[in-house]
Design brief:
YefM-like fold; alpha+beta; rod-shaped; 80 residues
Length: 80
């Protein structure tokens, strides 16, 4: 792993980040010869699933969905 001093990292930060992105190789940042940070390439994130269709396949039908929900007498109860 390549090592650079913190002062060099501060001076060339954007170029170093671009180098890590292109080469996919990490770089260790040191201060007084001791490691303080590592710059590693970001892992590509998975695309998020959209909200349209996110519940597809999760429901199920129990019984008749077309007919009345109660008996014929219950339907006639409020007709007076």
């Amino acid at each position: 792993m390549k090592e650079i001093s913190i002062s060099e990292f501060k001076a060339k930060c954007l170029a170093i980040l671009e180098q890590v992105r292109k080469t996919r190789k990490p770089i260790r940042v040191t201060r007084f010869g001791k490691p303080v940070a590592e710059v590693i390439p970001a892992t590509p994130s998975k695309p998020k699933k959209g909200w349209l269709g996110c519940m597809a396949g999760t429901g199920f039908i129990l019984g008749d969905i077309v007919g009345p929900t109660g008996s014929l007498e219950e339907w006639e109860a409020g007709r007076d």
